[in-house]
Predict the 3D structure of the following.
Amino acid sequence: MLSRALGPILLVTISLAGCQEPTVSMAEKVFTGGTIYTADSSQSVVSAMAISGDQILATGSDSSMAALIGEHTQVIDLQGKMIIPGLHDVHIHLPGIVESDSCDLASTPYSLEDLVPRLKPCLQGLDAGEWLSVDQWSYTAGNEPSERLPTVRAALDAVSTEHPIMLLGNDGHHGAVNSYALALATDKYGNQVGLSAETLAAEFVDFIATVGVDASGEPNGALNEDARKLVNIPNLWGYPAVDNQLVSRISDKLAANGITSVLDAALTSKDIAGFASAAKDSALTYRMSVAFYADFEDYRPQPDAAIDVDAVVAEGFEAGGHNGKDEITTMCLIPKIADEVNIPVIAAGGIADGRAMLAAMCLGADGVQIGSRFAVCKESSAHENFKNYVFDAKDGATDLTLKEITAVRLLKNDFYQKIQGAYLAKSTTKELKELLGRGRAKKGMFEGNLSEGELEIGQVSSMINKMQTSKEIIDEIIDDFNKVKSHLSTLNT
């Protein structure tokens, strides 16, 4: 995940003056006897603070405030309570926090029968065939079926058969559509084939886990995660374009809730440009970090247009951690990719030494990406238990599994054996997700629980058997690369 800071953009309504001598004669309010976190460069904590209007005049000890207390100054004893400059939201989607002009269910649970009359007025003003996008659908509550409306698909069909309709879940990951929308689904070649039991088993087999079906196997309207893209809705997220006016509304909403810094968990390049422009115009009143969301469709070459990327990483299934579902080796993948693009290709998966690096370049790669060796280097934050487990790994110690959720290559341990047991028991995707739970990778690789943790590493783990610094690893790889290259040159004579 790429994190970007959008420049010097902290412009809060109350600025901290730090621990300093007062610069004005009297304060409007003085807070004493508290724990006040200043958030200055020294991360100072003081007991007292003086303010006037929207300005902090001084921070420091209780006694240092005496000169600022006048006849009309309100003195407030915090009695040990804490004051902080503001809140930090670590996962937010800024364009979605302001009210939009679209149809919005406000996360209110509706039965399927009640959903129909609630949505019908939203069709007003739409031309035939125009999408109806509905925000903040409560997918976890309500949605009780009836004899007339046994599925959410049936309910949305009752709303309209002349418009494609999508309900956007209030979590950003779930959705539901009507039959009109399902009929718009296109295959990977762009052909409109519709989404049905037949096409789900053929063209859309990779989406079986994210498409809801009824007892007969036909789609029941539920489309989750990337399955929502199959029906080609123009604006999946339903977010408006980011401009200064929108940013100003966002700023007001954040300020009203005491939020002074955020991490937006998924912004496109266009969104980022909008926020960056607002920052230059001083319209951004909070500190902001960004997780960049790259939709690969945006980078597909258009007719007579260049590919707007600098390089491509081609990773074979030998790689550790999260992986592709298709078991294509690096040796097969690299030449295929290299033949299709005219930008640098970076090879990944199964590369641990100079020999593999040279082999990848012979296959058409311009560089290599190495993960497993550095995952267990001296500087790595991985737990020593995990590192030692990797050093002891033999051939066949890893396996690519959990393809129904997110394919991942794991070292075989007790948790891995539980996964295999679940497969033997023909567990559902839901049951596999429950088995996986949360924080498995952290438990294994960073907390050192070798039994219950997820131990992600590549097939090259059997080649890694000693602790080295990152410099030692790099020096060794380059040295091996040059030695093998030199040796090969002698074979040509």
In short: The longest helix spans residues 470-491.
